[in-house]
Amino acid sequence: MMAFFWVFLGGGLGSICRYGIGLLLQPYKLQFPYATLIANAISCVILGILIGLSLKNQLHQRMQLLLMTGFCGGFSTFSTFSSETFLLFEQGQLNAAFFNIFGSVIIGLIGIYFGLKLVH
Predict the structure, then answer these.
(1) 65 burial class (0-12, 13-18, 19+ CB within 10 angstroms)?
(2) What burial class does residue 24 get, using C-beta atoms within 10 Å of its C-beta: 0-12 exposed, 13-18 middle, 19+ buried?
């Protein structure tokens, strides 16, 4: 039962951080969904670090639930990424939509790799 608590706590904290990035970028009235891209990129780096620590048995299961499942799960967001990409297509911004798709995947993979390398 405590596992649910740790995931809940981490997820709430991650969601608050993602919301904060959106608020920080809101005054700039950007046409591209940078807030989601930034949150997902940061989350991938953090997750890479946490995976590296887990592989070395340096991250207690409670912390894995709190940080990996909870925080990173709440901080990153596939549904918002998908929705924003769909809207870019709907608005005829094909280049931006494809950049968002491929850029997000590439940046995410690089983030995981970079996070793992920081620990190893």
Answers:
(1) buried
(2) exposed
Q: Which of 48, 68, 54 is nearest to 118 (CA)?
A: 48
The position carrying tokens 């405590």 is 2
Instruction: Tell me the average confidence (pLDDT) per consecutive run of 10 residues in the chain, 120 residues long.
Output: 97 98 97 98 98 97 98 97 98 98 98 97
**What contacts 74, CB < 8 A, 6 or more positions away?**
10, 11, 12, 13, 14, 15, 17, 18
Instruction: Assess contact for 18 and 34: CB atoms under 8 A.
Output: no
How far are the Cα atoms of 43, 52, 58, 118 from residue 115, in angstroms, in the given order? 10, 8, 15, 5
State the pLDDT at residue 20.
98
Q: What gap in Å lies between CA 75 and CA 72, rounded to an integer?
A: 5
What does the pLDDT read at residue 21? 98
